[in-house]
Please model this.
Amino acid sequence: LLEIPSLVSLLGAFALGLLVALLITLLIGPRGRWTTRATPEAVEALLARGASARQAGQLDEAIQHHTAALDVDEGHLGALFALAEDYQAAGQPAMVREHLRRILSRRPGEPRALTWLRDLTAAEGRWEEAKGIQEQLLRRAATPEARMPENALLSGIRYEAGKVAVAEGRTRDARRLFQEVIRDDPAFVPGYLGLGEALQKLGKRREAVQVWAEGLQRTSALPLLRRLEQNEREAGHPGEMIQLALAALARVPDDPTLTFYLGQVYLDLSMLDEATEQFERLAALAPEIGTFHAYLGSLLERRGKLTEALVEYRQALKIRGVFDLPHRCGECGNRFPGWVDRCERCGRWNSIQPVTCALPPLAPPPPPHGGRQP
Ligand SMILES: [Zn+2]
Model:
């Protein structure tokens, strides 16, 4: 008899427990319903508050809201991107990197995060790492149009990684990187220069000259001609330069840069008639080079005393920069006093060309008498 009431109370307690559990379920809902129904509004509200805080320049507050959004919905891509932006604005690249990595661990290859991480890594000069990221981006580019700019960037990034390897004494790594550059991008002039330097450091002088000559053959680019010239001077036979310049000109007959260069070589070797002939050709090819014209003008005026005029002219050539051809970035139009491997304004590599060369979007209209193309 004693046991019946305790059984009843036990059953009662059990029923009460069930009731409480049912009530809790009804009030709060299971976890699944909670996350799918109540969260989006909460996250959106927090993201909106964070965005306006950032806009007002209150970065700490923005970070708080965006972190709260992430607490509600762990791994929310919008919140992660928002936090990356906050930390970018706050000048904390390590935190930007951390959030981009979180995005990429949730969604491998996410293009915006990958591109951002690449730019961040490159800006920090971590070129080997940037190279890996850029190779991923290239693999993701589906069409030839999409691949082209990614390929160009990869060349530049590999080249910079090669320069770092040279600076750190990892010459064999550098050679491999520069070889990759010109294998995939035969028009990438800095790649030949870098590969030649690496080969020279490895004691392979002849191979270095071969690389520069090969690059010259493919690109007819002045920096390669100059590099070969320096080499010939060091070796004590500058006369070789005439052959190199003539061979380059044979491939690109009306190139003002190469004509200018050949004139300089003749002048250096005191072959005055030949030098004059090249400068006269240049006057017809590229009348827009102002500095050069001033000198040629005075040179021609003094034709009666040609030898003395040329001696003076040669002196002028020795003043660095005075007689170098002005250069311009083919991408953004930024001007440079001489050749550089990368444009400091737009960040492109291999885009700097002498102003005399045709740069379709920016070149001045051709002079009326210069109609060399049919
Ligand atoms: Zn540029």
User: Anything to note?
Assistant: Residues 329, 331-332, 334, 343, 345-346, 348, 351 surround zinc ion (CB under 6 Å). The longest strand covers residues 327-329.
